[in-house]
Design goal:
35% of the residues lie in helices and 16% in strands. The protein contains 15 helices and 14 strands. Bound molecules: zinc ion.
Length: 388
Amino acid sequence: MTFSEQSSMGLRGGVPHGGRLVDRRLDVEEAGVLGSGSLPWLALTAAEAADLRALATGAYSPLTGFLGAKEHESVTASMGLPDGTLWPIPVCLGIPDGLRVDADQLLLRGAGGELVGVLEVAEVFERDRVAEAELVYGTTDPEHPGVARVLGAPARAVAGPVRAVVAPLVGPVGSRALTPAETRAVFAERGWSTVVGFQTRNPVHRAHEYLMKCALEMVDGLLLHPLVGPTKEGDVPAEVRMAAYEAVVGYFPPERVLLAALVAPMRYAGPREAVLHALVRKNYGCTHFIVGRDHAGVGSYYGPFQAQELLASLAPEELGIVPLRFDNAFWCRRCGAMATGKTCPHPDRDHVALSGTQVRAMLAAGQLPPPEFSRAEVAELLIGASRS
Ligand SMILES: [Zn+2]
C-alpha cells in the first residue's frame, strides 16, 4: 500500500519504510547459550551498539543488518538499496585487522563485555571510506566529526543480518527509549492518525517550541524525539537535555505530545542524514517530520536549506513521510509574537534572536536569556549543568 492510499483510508500512523517493521530481537536465554560457546566475537563501539539496537528494533527498517559491499556501493553512490528502496547513509560494521571471521556467526559484545547480539556472517568486504565520505557527507575533511568516524573506521567491514538483545534501558533517559512498536502502540491508543516527529540533539528553546506548535496545529500528535546516542564533544549531555525537554513538554497538552528518546549515533551528515532522520521517524509511526535550517549539519559544511531541498526533491511515495520545512523562528517585538521571516515583515532589530555562542556565554555566566528566547525552567537547568 502506498502512503497516499493509506492516508486516504484514514489508517493510523505511517507504513514503515519498505512496508513492514523489522523485528530482529534476540531473547536473553538464546543470547546466554550463544555467549557460552566458542564463536568469534567483536566489541562494539557505543555508536555501533546504538546502530545495532536501531537495526533490531526496526528503527532502520527495511535494513535487517549491517550492509554488504553491493549495498554500501549503491547507498553511497545513489542513495538507495540495490532494490531501489531509498536509503541515504551506509550502516556498516568495521572489523579490526587481526580479527578472523571464520565462523558463520559473529558475536557482538558491548563495552562491558556483555553479549548484545549476533551477526550471521554474509561477507567481509573492503569499505571504500573515502567515497563514502565524499558522496554521503560531501567532504573528506577529517575535521568533520561524521567523516572522522568514517575515515577512522577499519578498512574491512563485516556484513549480514543481525539479532540483538533489546533490553529495557534505565534512568531518566533510557526509560524514554521506546521502540518503534512501542511508539506506534501509544499513537494507536491515543487515536492519533497523523503524527509529526521532531528530531533534536540540542536543548529546545522557544523557537523550536514554536515550530512544533505550528506543526501540531495541523496534525493529531507530536513525537518529541531527541537523539540520545553518541554525539560530538561540546553537545549538552542527554540527561540535562531530557530534563529540559520535560520542562518544555509542560507547555503542550499532555494528550497531544509524546516525549521519547532515539538511541542512535549522530552522523552530522546534513542533507543525507535529514533523509535518514525522516525515514527513522516514519518507522516510529510518524506521518510528518519537521526539518529546520541546516538540519543535522555541523560547522559550515552544508547550506542552510540543502537538507530541505534534498527532501523536497524526493518523490512523496518514495519518502513516505511528509517533510514540514521551516526557517528559523524568533520573537518579534513589533508582532508581539513568535514568527519567522515567512510571517513577520519587521527588520532584524525588532527580533529577539541570539546565536548559539551568545546563549552558551550567557548560560556559563549564570545569566538567564530573555524569556522570549528560552523558557526560564529550561535556562535554569542549562545554567546548572554548565556550572557543574
Ligand atoms: Zn514582526
